Amino acid sequence: MTTTPPPPPPAGPTGTGPLTPTDHRAFAFLGHVNSSLRQCLCTLARHGVALRRDAPERARLLLDTVRPWPLYKGGQFLFDLMEWEDLMVDGDPPPVMSTERIVAACTLPVRLAAAATEEASAVTKLVPGQRTTAALGLPLSLLTTTARSTLLSAAQDLTDLLGPAAPDDADPDDDAGYATDPEPVTDDTGAELPPLEAGFYLYEDIALGALSVLGPLLADHAPTDPAPPA
């Protein structure tokens, strides 16, 4: 008994397979996001390695201070959950991301955090809810406009950080890997950055690098208490 073979599956668009041009463009954007995130994380980690190398006592005190904080522990959980170490160490080392680019992307989130944790004024404490809005002369339309502007600015900052790097940020001819690159790599201040160290220290180095790069920005938003806490 002769059986008829099943018909072949329908072919996709000629030369592209089942994916559409929009799919390819979407993946291209997401690839840029991954690359820029990897570039940022690797840059912060290398700043952290440099800090451990050049100022080991300061690095130890910084880590001892932040380790008990939920923000640090939560960051470690997300780092492990999203397997960012694999993202960072897979492939050739990315170019160093400039300090200005990292700080610019983090300025708005830091300002929002500072505003959210700032001590409320006496008027705000005494007049809650809608009366506070009226007392401070902030109509709902202004609050809505401010919120919309804040979200748009935050989105733009994230786009600047995670979008494609400018052509002069990287050397297209530089394809050396972690183990074979003999040339020292410097950040935008001219300081030499050592290669990152995978393994136990990697998340700690990212935390140290973030404190080093963003330290001046964070210090600018410190509480203005007349006396330091005991």
**Averaged pLDDT, please?**
75
Low-pLDDT segments, ≥5 res? 165-184
Main sheet strand line-up: 1-2
Q: Given the structure, what is the number of helices?
A: 9
Cα separation of the termini: 93 Å
Coarse shape: globular
Task: Estimate the helix proportion, in percent.
Answer: 55-70%
Largest sheet: 2 strands, antiparallel
Total strand count, please?
2
> What's the helix-strand series?
HHHHHHHHEEH
Q: Please state the CA-atom Rg, rounded to the nearest Å.
A: 24 Å
Structural class: mainly alpha
Percent in strands: under 5%
Summarize this entry quickly.
With 230 residues, the protein is mainly alpha-helical. Helix content is 59%, strand content 2%.
How do the helices and strands line up, and which of them pair or pack?
Blueprint: H1 21-54, H2 56-66, H3 70-81, H4 84-89, H5 99-117, H6 122-126, H7 129-135, H8 140-162, E1 185-186, E2 192-193, H9 202-220
Antiparallel strand pairs: 1-2
Helix pairs in contact: 1-2, 1-9, 5-8, 5-9
Structure description:
- The structure is a single chain.
- With 230 residues, the chain is an all-alpha fold.
- It contains nine helices and two strands; from the N terminus they run ααααααααββα.
- The chain has a two-stranded antiparallel ribbon.
- α5 packs across α9 (202-220).
- The N and C termini lie far apart (93 Å).
- Mean pLDDT is 75; it is low at 165-184.
